[in-house]
Amino acid sequence: MKIIKKIAFLALATISTLPTTGQDLLARQAPIDRKMKAVDSVALQRLIDFDNLENPAADLYEDWDNMHAHSQAVLPDSFRISLKNFCMPTTSRVLTSNFGARWGRQHKGLDIKVYIGDTIRAAFDGKVRVVRYEGRGYGKYVVIRHDNGLETYYAHMSKQLVEEDQEVRAGDPIGLGGNTGRSTGSHLHFETRLCGFALNPALLFDFRNQDVVDDYYMFRKATYQRESALASRLRGVSSMSFGSDDEVELATAAPEASYTHESRFHKVKRGETLFSIARKRGTTVDAIMKLNHLKKNARLRAGQILKYN
């Protein structure tokens, strides 16, 4: 009987202390919760800041429209466009038409000679916004919005290989070369736009060198027109006096042929492989290995110079 009373007393004493213990636990937990909330807020803000840094397009565009090619947004006075981690949309080095005034109207992109069935690739990582057909204009075309703020347009293709709202990586096949829509011969019409404003692709891409012009391009409203004209002279078609794509191609064929036989070199960056370099330079791993007397399992080092042409 004494044992039972003792057990009952202990049980009653334990029960009576539970609310106090619970309150103590809550009291001790409250500062921890406030600290965790503060840490979560800092971590969340860091995540948002990092996302904005990696994806400035999120701040430039308010809407996502799959119906209309030209998505208009407020054009900033200046904007830095990252050109890192790119892929040339085609390995062709032959330009057939410049950006700018042509036949009494504005030509909003560059025309690059490709043949029907040639692979067209995404220039940067991004998300496909438009996949449509326009019989009196672009023909079969694709528009991709990229993390760096640009939108790229690929027109006159014979076939589209992607769907709207699809995520793509730089170098992914997105279509095949063609001659659809308002076109005078098989070619790729390639546009680069910022907030719907057409930028001269020659400011960013050097098709003859199969490279971008720099790691970044700083767009400025005040100096854009002058820079665009200079870029066309440096990296565009040398003469605009010809009437068709085929005639322009013939005019540029001779200097292009002599150019492609020059030796070209690539400086290896950290993390690059023979495959990524070959894709970037529009060649093959076997060709690079042969030119540089490399074995297939050769290890590359940052700063190494490789001949690729």
Q: What topology emerges from the helices and strands here?
A:
Layout lengths: L1 H53 L2 H4 L17 E5 L12 E3 L2 E3 L2 E3 L2 E4 L5 E3 L4 E9 L4 E8 L3 E8 L1 E2 L6 E2 L4 E4 L10 E8 L2 E3 L5 E2 L4 E2 L3 E5 L3 H12 L9 H16 L4 E3 L6 H8 L3 H8 L12 E3 L2
Structure, explained:
This protein is of the alpha+beta class and 309 residues long. Helices cover 33% and strands 26% of the residues. It has helices spanning 2-54, 57-60, 224-235, 245-260, 274-281, 285-292; strands at 78-82, 95-97, 100-102, 105-107, 110-113, 119-121, 126-134, 139-146, 150-157, 159-160, 167-168, 173-176, 187-194, 197-199, 205-206, 211-212, 216-220, 265-267, 305-307. The strands form 6 sheets. Strands 2, 5, 7, 8, 9, 11, 13 and 14 form an 8-stranded antiparallel sheet that branches. Helix 5 (274-281) packs across helix 6 (285-292). The longest helix is centred in the first third of the chain and has 53 residues, at 2-54.
Short structural summary:
By secondary structure, the chain is an alpha+beta fold. 33% of the residues lie in helices and 26% in strands.
